[in-house]
Amino acid sequence: MRALLVDRSSRPLSASAGLRLGEAPDPQPAPHQALIRVTAASLNYGEVRFSLADTPDGTVLGWDAAGVVEQAAADGTGPAVGTPVVTLGLDGAWAELRAVDTDWIGTVPAGADLGSVSTVPVAGTSALRALHRLGPILGRRVLVTGATGGTGRYAVQLARRGGAYVIASTGDPERHGDSLRAQGAHEVVTGSGLLHLKEPVHGVVDLVGGQQLIDAYSMLAERGTLVAVGHAAHEGETFPYGALFGDNGRHDRSIVTFSLPACHGLAPDLTWLAQHVASGELDPQISWRGSWEKAGDAIGALLERRLHGKAVLDIT
């Protein structure tokens, strides 16, 4: 099969990306895995920022992919041959074929744009599970930091659908305010101005970390929860003395860490999200889409923070 291979030595597809299109062995699925013919893959900042830098040459990377089942799982689980699907994995998405655990496969409505659906696995399910962790959000104030990224935009839309009063934080409210409000944000604020929110919040989906996490935590109401999903700031968190006191309306606040691969039952989440993207009820906010032959361009834009939303590679 053809695949995007990590290659830092011989004429890469992009010198900055360290990739080339080449041949790789077809994956051999385990009994609990289906073999997927990949149509599209979406990129995530974490995989291009860290996995690409730390992985040996010849590796096929990629977390998110959508396509069609070529070979059903031998143990009888998962969708049948010919079913359009969306898939999550720790690698292997940037290739014509992918073997995936059936627990990490969602079914897609017939005729759906698989490129749009390919944005769901990491961004959509991370947002959905983070909001689940906050508990009931109907009528509650929910803050999403780093709201202009792929996960943040899904979190804003899903929180609004769940009945929350949504506050979206971004580095440039003037530039991104209109689009975030169109996706469901009631307020758009700057990440450096969280301490000036008019009222406390009941939940936070934090995608930035560093000082923004500290500031967002300080705005939590009693029994509020902050879910640390992303760490875009690449900074540590040092809380000042008194930040973790529980008096004066700060009782029982919590910070929760998050790892998507540790979550169980992701197949129904993937299916539900894919259905809502296919119907147009959720907007994947694709800001770059093109052939995987131009993957280096998309990765460069992602690493330089020039993309606000999702990048999709069409596997042609």
UniProtKB/TrEMBL annotation:
Domain Enoyl reductase (ER): start-end pairs: 14-313
PANTHER family in UniProt: ACRYLYL-COA REDUCTASE ACUI-RELATED, SHORT-CHAIN DEHYDROGENASE/REDUCTASE
InterPro entries per record: ADH-like_C (IPR013149), ADH-like_N (IPR013154), ER (IPR020843), GroES-like_sf (IPR011032), NAD(P)-bd_dom_sf (IPR036291), Zn-ADH-like_protein (IPR051397)
Species whose genome carries this gene: Streptomyces flavidovirens
Protein name per Swiss-Prot or TrEMBL: Zinc-binding dehydrogenase
